Amino acid sequence: MPNPRVIATWPFGLPACQAAWEVLSAGGAAIDGVEAGAWYCDDDPAVDSVGFGGLPDASGELTLVASIMDHTGRGGAVACVRRVRHATKVARMVMERTPLVMLVGEAATQFAIREGMK
């Protein structure tokens, strides 16, 4: 990949960019770098806008959203995922394992569990 770039707009994005860069500098695919960066944010309890450190929805429960797209333009997304830590991984599984583009709510959560997510 000539001259790869990793960019973030929020302060918590810097370590996410570093996680993505580790994948890219080792020759990993761009989509793997994107996922690595998202996982970093998902796992940081200090980040209150995404991941398990995020703020609850109107019902008081943490629900997650994520989308991902590969270099060919294929995409996957999930919304209102509950009790699953890495929504970006679930979005990628939607893209790679189904003919769908988006799953929402309990259908997204059940899909994640069926596909082996904890």
Characterise this structure.
The chain is 41% helix and 14% strand. The chain is built from four helices and three strands; from the N terminus they run ααββαβα. Strand 2 (75-81), helix 3 and strand 3 form a beta-alpha-beta unit. Helix 1 packs antiparallel against helix 2. It is globular. The termini are far apart.
What is the structure about, briefly put?
With 118 residues, the protein is an alpha+beta fold. The protein has helices at 13-25, 30-43, 87-97, 105-114, and strands at 64-69, 75-81, 102-104. It has a three-stranded mixed beta sheet.
User: How many angstroms separate the termini?
Assistant: 33 Å
Strand order of the largest sheet: 1-2-3
Q: How many helices?
A: 4
Percent helix? 40-55%
Mean pLDDT level: 92
What's the quaternary structure here? single chain
| Percent in strands | 5-15%
Order of helices and strands: HHEEHEH
Net shape: globular
